[in-house]
Amino acid sequence: MKDAYDVIVVGGGPAGAVAARYAAEGGASVLLIEKRQEVGDSIRCAEGVPVENLDKYLDIEDRWIAAPIKGATIYVPDGTSVKMRTGDENQISGYILERKIFDRALVEKAAKAGAEVYTKTTATGLIIENGRIAGVKIKRLGMEKDVAANIVIGADGVESKVGRWAGLDTTLKLSDIETGVQYLMTNIDIDEENIEFYMGNQYAPGGYVWVFPKGPGRANVGIGLLGSKIKEGGRPIDYLDKFIENRFPNGKIIEMNYGGVPVSGGMEKIYGAGIMLVGDAGRLTDPLTGGGIKHALWSGELAGITAAEAVKAGDFTEKFMKKYQKAWDDKGGKILSRDLILKNYYIGMTDEEVNKIAKSIEGMDFTGVLEVGKLVKILTSIDKKLLLKLGANQLGL
Ligand SMILES: Cc1cc2nc3c(=O)[nH]c(=O)nc-3n(C[C@H](O)[C@H](O)[C@H](O)COP(=O)(O)OP(=O)(O)OC[C@H]3O[C@@H](n4cnc5c(N)ncnc54)[C@H](O)[C@@H]3O)c2cc1C
């Protein structure tokens, strides 16, 4: 490890790997550090990702795909179900990943682009000189070292400290955190190409239960509950166990993981002089679905490009870094704002209201509707009161 780099990326998840890659491809010298022994392990994720633009970040390869997905079914408490399909039987709408392999492949790309990668290496603080970022304090195998850098990219996930160290407000309220618990199950009866969602307070107050197939008879089965709702009804694991008893009575649990998902819809500011936050560290997860992989890739790309441009320009000011926030707002920010409105509406709904909406669209042809925006357009065209409540302008409809 050298004493100085142009850019240090803290965290080797999808956001950090992509940021390191784009910064290195843009000509910057880059250090990527990951505190765990290996990237991608252990996972805290249901591993679902839409197909959209994925091939920009990695060649589509079987080794990191557990299951290609062609449809989704939403179930609500009264048993009504809404089925959505791609239409073309060969068309894939998304993948359930093998994230251990996916995350590693992204880091390989960063390394190939020229980034230096160190695992078992933890950032313990930032070096700040004259009010600007000057590097990172690093701990590796018992050794402590100050490494200089003009730019630090915080990609250290939901428990991010980099943002706080840099003076950015990363705090999350209980209503801004979804707590997820998940089992990897086998011996279960599922449609391998179809994901299942179970919505309503009966299943998951302020959240949902998911079944994401990972091949024959195998799936990630999990639940996300809103932090502020947990005290009302019980622990997420209790809801999940109850669900499994009914849906998969003969299933076997072979792995378990849990973690928090930020659902605040972003942060006021994801940049400062010499600092940018990407992925979960910037709270860029989708507040409605809890999906964060796509936004981690997008924000990593935008921050990596901005970092390389800043190095070329020799400009590490807050004003220059603002370009990253602007690029993010244009690409992902609008989706976060829309889905925050939808999330806030959803968490206030009773099970009767959820049932009613599902009933109104049950049996409709939803071919090709596998995207939140499209589904909302259909729902609001059927129910004008819903459109008024949500606000057409705010939703960008
Ligand atoms: C139960 C659950 C299910 C989910 N399901 C989905 C899903 O199906 N689809 C989806 O899109 N999203 C899902 N998510 C969200 C998704 O996992 C995250 O949004 C995504 O991993 C964010 O990527 P990231 O690179 O920002 O952060 P992470 O993947 O969390 O990576 C951060 C990395 O930083 C490292 N790190 C932290 N601190 C330091 C430090 N001080 N020094 C060095 N390294 C450090 C960590 O070890 C970690 O490897 C789920 C989350 C949970 C909890």
Largest sheet: 8 strands, mixed
**Roughly what percent helix?**
25-40%
User: Spans with pLDDT under 50 lasting ≥5 residues?
Assistant: none
CATH architecture of the domain at 4-45 and 99-173 and 264-342: 3-Layer(bba) Sandwich
Using only CA atoms, what is the Rg?
21 Å
* Spatial gap, N to C terminus: 50 Å
How does this model look, in words?
This protein is α/β, with parallel strands linked by helices and 397 residues long. The protein has a domain at 4-45 and 99-173 and 264-342: FAD/NAD(P)-binding domain (3-Layer(bba) Sandwich). It is 34% helix and 28% strand. The chain contains eleven helices and 18 strands. The chain has helices at 14-25, 99-113, 162-165, 227-233, 236-247, 293-313, 318-347, 351-361, 372-382, 384-390, 392-395; strands at 4-10, 30-33, 48-50, 65-69, 71-75, 81-85, 94-97, 116-118, 121-129, 132-140, 143-154, 177-186, 194-199, 208-213, 218-226, 252-262, 271-272, 275-277. The strands form three sheets. Strands 1, 2, 8, 9, 10, 11, 17 and 18 form an eight-stranded mixed sheet that branches. Strand 10 and strand 11 form a beta hairpin. Helix 1 (14-25) runs parallel beside helix 2 (99-113) and helix 9 (372-382) packs across helix 10. The mean pLDDT is 92. The site of flavin-adenine dinucleotide (FAD) has 38 residues, from helix 1, strand 3, strand 9, strand 12 and strand 16.
